[in-house]
Amino acid sequence: MRAVQLVAHGTPGRFEMRELPDPRPGEGEVVVQVMACGLNHLDLWLEENGLPIQPSLPRTAGCEIAGRVTQVGPGVTAWRPGDRVAVQSNIFCDQCEFCQQGEESLCLRSELLGIQRDGGFAEKVLVPARLLVALPPTVDFPTSAALTLAGSTAMHMLTHRATVKAGEWVLVMGAASGVGSAAIQIARGLGARVITTGTTEAKRKLGLQLGAEYALDPADARWTSEVRKITNKRGVDWVMEHVGGDVLPKVMECLARGGAIVTCGATAGRQITFDIWPFFVKQQRLIGSYGRNRADMRATLDWAAAGKLKPVIHAIYPLERVPEAFAALRQRQVLGKIVIQP
Ligand SMILES: [Zn+2]
Fold it and tell me: What is the span of the domain harbouring residue 51?
């Protein structure tokens, strides 16, 4: 089978198209023919060696996989060749105390698909069968590959880590990002009112099309006071944040008393300082969110099947153009998701 492998870290890293032996499923494993695989910031961190873990190279990246089961290993009874599936990218152990409670995103022995084992920028991928989630018949492969990682991350943030209710104000950072574009739609689906941000006119326009009532430019120094003005000086109930760096202390200025920031990323920086005084006086909360549970994956695909959650697909690239896809995402000129179709 063909696979695009990262052979040397860097910005850009060095990729090679390689012919590899077809994977063979062991006990509890399945082989999935990759029909589509989404590109994510996680892949860029692998490329530049920016993760706290040191993956060995060569490595096939790609963690947002949709495809068809082609082979099942011994002990696999729930799946058959031909089944249409999405693959959960946080490889949970299914045995620790958190997995036992269905909190797979808190797994004590979690690994990342496409980082610690080969992922989906290949014709086939070998994964533990427990990672599979059935794809509803009306959800096509590119839709799944553009939603199941970023979309289920947003689902986990809004419906599990947060409890967003009808009528509440939600500020979603980064309308054009995978997480942001899904978070806007999920917040609207839950009946909330949405303010979003975008660094270009096109990104702000997309935010409004997805259901936000206001789309602000975070480069404008007054954007946080604009949020307070929109909410009659009250501030928002929730902020969905995935940028980190200087952005996180800024969004605190937008938060209502008793409000909460849910954060799932740090693309702009991992260290922050903020004034803890107004934070405790206003009884606000900062909530971490990481990955998703299978329940979030199922909910995401159910919302997609019901037409309530649509992916924003920037472009679909063939396997040969994976390096180009990485470069496009790194330049931050992407509206929505890039999907690779082997
Ligand atoms: Zn576990």
Answer: 2-149+292-341
